[in-house]
Specification:
Number of helices: 12
Organism: Alloprevotella rava
Order of helices and strands: HEHEHHEHEHEEEHEEEEHEHHEHH
Bound molecules: zinc ion
CATH superfamily: Aldolase class I
Number of strands: 13
Keywords: Lyase, Metal-binding, Zinc
GO molecular function: fructose-bisphosphate aldolase activity; zinc ion binding
CATH topology: TIM Barrel
Binding site for Zn(2+) 2: 117, 147
Structural class: alpha/beta
Number of domains: 1
Shape: globular
Pfam families: F_bP_aldolase
Length: 337
């Protein structure tokens, strides 16, 4: 039987995006696959009174079970209230939906927002598929994110060798004909912890750390000129903090030359019409770094709470930092009491 997200206490993304664009900040979209990640996201966003988007990929849905995920999202709303956030704004969003059937199933299962990613299809097919999802989702007041342009990198089942920047001349036609509520664009962000090849980067002469090429803000500007005030989404926006990479590498891990998007550039993007910034890899890195540290220091530890707990603490720290210092979404709930 179908369930509405409204009955679960969730919200769609329409109002939070409108306020984010007008206020010059961005809403965090954090992926989750397990309880500790969800606890960390809700703890950080509730404490800082930030609206938040819980993202579930097709892979996460297969990993954790869709029914369980839905109840976890419902539980997240109640947990936020318990943490003193009386009017939380939490969206449950499908990340990279790849078919009408998957999007429909999420809408029917209580998701408040879905992405249909037809970006790898020919333009007209992307439009047809996206429009079909929008027509279904809007009957239930579920918001829809579309995508134009291709990001490089690997994210669950989404793999692309090369990126193709979004063509600003297509965005009006695409958004008008599909009716999407927001648009993911490609301006140089990338999925995964290896966003750029070393040959695309320069090396900091002092630290030896890779410095990635800058995002294409000129394309973002052109898109904003074509679509004034329209909600824009950035995928693949982890920064791959060097401290986590070092923690992992110094405890037996192997992540050579992992590189992300500098936070400075995301701060700049958050002030524009970019109103949703997707962060997944950073949380995976924090989780792995903390677990590795426990194993390295206490090889006899075998209680999962003793290593998942520290992982959760490090993720809380990460999410708070993103909300406050990068996206600027703290104290932005419509009702702060
Ligand atoms: Zn993505």
């Amino acid at each position: 039987m179908a369930v509405s997200y409204k009955d679960l206490g969730l919200v769609n993304t329409r109002e939070m995006f409108k306020r984010a664009i007008n206020g010059g900040y961005a809403i965090p979209a954090f992926n989750f696959n397990n309880m500790e990640q969800l606890q960390a996201i809700i703890t950080a966003s509730s404490k800082l009174k930030s609206p938040v988007i819980l993202q579930v990929s097709k892979g996460a849905r297969n990993y954790a079970n869709q029914t369980l995920l839905r109840y976890m999202a419902q539980g997240a709303v109640e947990y936020a209230k318990e943490l003193g956030c009386n009017h939380p704004e939490i969206a449950l969003h499908l990340d990279h939906g790849d078919s009408f059937e998957l999007c429909k199933s999420c809408v029917d299962m209580g998701f408040s927002s879905v992405m249909i990613d037809g970006s790898s299809l020919p333009y007209e097919e992307n439009i047809a598929l996206t429009k079909k999802v929008v027509e279904y989702a809007h009957q239930f007041d579920v918001t829809v994110e579309g995508e134009l342009g291709v990001l490089a990198g690997v994210e669950d089942e989404v793999v692309a060798e090369e990126s193709h920047y979004t063509r600003p001349e297509e965005v009006i036609d695409f958004t008008k004909r599909t009716g999407v509520d927001s648009l993911a664009i490609s301006i140089g962000t990338s999925h995964g912890a290896y966003k750029f090849k070393p040959e695309q980067c320069t090396r900091d002469p002092k630290t030896g750390v890779l410095v990635p090429p800058p995002l294409a803000f000129d394309i973002l500007d052109d898109i904003m000129k074509e679509l004034p005030g329209f909600p824009i989404v950035l995928h693949g926006s982890s920064s791959v903090p060097q401290e986590y990479v070092d923690m992992i590498n110094s405890t037996g891990g192997k992540l050579p030359d992992a590189v992300g998007i500098p936070e400075e550039q995301l701060r700049k993007a958050a002030k524009s019409a970019v109103c949703k910034i997707n962060i997944d890899s950073d949380s995976r890195l924090a989780f792995t770094a903390a677990v590795r540290k426990v194993f390295a220091e206490k090889p006899g530890e075998f209680d999962p709470r003793k290593y998942c707990g520290p992982a959760r603490d490090l993720m809380i720290e990460l999410y708070e930092h993103k909300i406050k210092e990068v996206l600027g979404s703290d104290n932005k709930l419509a009702q702060l009491d």
